[in-house]
């Protein structure tokens, strides 16, 4: 006959006062077995079934030699960088500078004109002593002697004009590569070069007061032009 009683639970039919105590020998054997399993499988945690999380009861994890190295590298990089899965913010990517075609054309034209102007201004400062000597001869200034400071001033002024244009060219090209507004750079450089030429000429004229008095005469310009037409030279 089939037993109609319910399946007994642990300790339900045990005698009164009885409690289960593990045998010391069997516990030691179990500990030794777990330590041996850890030595054979160092990556396995003790007390955790080796097939935990497997798809089937008989399935085993793939050996390291059969794993895809690309997948392993991707997973390791994802572990190292916890924010790698997140998409970048909309404004975090650097935006490329907008092209300024009009500014580029104007800047190039100003740079070409500036090169011509810098060359002319530098040559004028370098030849400034000869020009003053020619004007003194045309105005027939008695006892005119050109100071040596005028020659030095002309050379220094010419070098300053070339230096201003070189800095203007370098800075303008850098701004054009970065896509920034650049047309004002040659204009500022031209203004600085004009100030250098004017200052050098005014300081040189102040070193020759006798020539300055003759140039203040209203007929000075007509006398210079007449002298140039006769001799065929230009100041």
Automatic annotation (TrEMBL):
Chain intervals for the UniProt region annotation (Disordered): 1-100
**InterPro entries, alphabetized:** DUF6264 (IPR046231)
Q: Give the compositionally biased regions (Basic and acidic residues).
A: 18-42
Give TM segment ranges: 105-126, 152-171, 183-205
Keywords recorded for this protein, A-Z:
Membrane, Transmembrane, Transmembrane helix
Where on the tree of life does the source sit, at the highest rank?
A: Bacteria
Protein name according to UniProt: Uncharacterized protein
